[in-house]
Write a structure and sequence with these properties.
Length: about 240
Amino acid sequence: MREDRELIDVDDPAWPLLLQELSGTDVAVEVLPGGVGRGAACLRQLQVSARSNLGGIVLNCGGLLVDGGWLRIFGSPIDGGLPGLAEVNAMPSTFDPSWQPGAGLVIARDVLGGVFAINGGSPREAGRPGEPGEIVYFAPDALEWEALGAGHSAWLSWIFSGGLQEFYESLRWEGWRSEVAVLDGRQGLSFFPPLWSAEARQDLSATSRRAVPMAELLGLNRDSCLQLDGTDPGFLGVA
C-alpha cells in the first residue's frame, strides 16, 4: 500500500495542467468545490496518485458539471449536492485492501442515466466490451455497454474539445438546457416512451420527461435490460 505522501505530494500533479486545459475550452464546465480530506481518503482506497487526471479531480474538486450538468464527472464534494466518486462506487469508509471496484470504476453519469466507467481487470468476464483501463459507456438508448476506445485522460480531452455535442446529437431536443438546469446532482430524466423505444427514436421531442432520483432511473434501465433480453448490465453505481 502506498502512503498518502506518495499519492498526494507528487512533483508533477495533473491538476494544474487540467485547469490549464479547462481555461482553453469553449465547453461549459463548472468546477465544484471539494473536500481535500475526502479526496485523500478516496485516493488512498484507489491507490491512484495526484499525477493522474483521475487523482487530480478527486483530490482537488467536488466534481465537474459539463454542459450545465448534462454530464456529471465525480470528485469529492463538500456537500451532498452531487455524489462523490467514493459514494457512487460504494467505497468503504476506511481503507480496505480487499476492496475492488468490480467490473469497473464509475466515473461519470449523464442526465439520461448513461454511465461512464473505467474497465476493471477482466471486462470480458463481466460481459463488457473493451480492454482493461478503457472508458466504456452504458447507453440508455441501447441498453448495453459500448467501448469508447480511449483511456481516462484522452476521454477528458475529448469532452473538453466538444466531443459531447456529436456523441449526444440524437439524444438532445429543443429546450433540453432548461430542463437540465433545474435538476440537482442526484436527479436524472425519465422518458416515456423510454429512450430505447422506436417511438422515442422516431421523435425524441414528443416524449414526456420527468425528473426522478438517479437511483430510480438506473433501476429502471437495469430492469429494462433484464426484461428485454435477460442481460444484467452489472454495477451502474449507487446514489
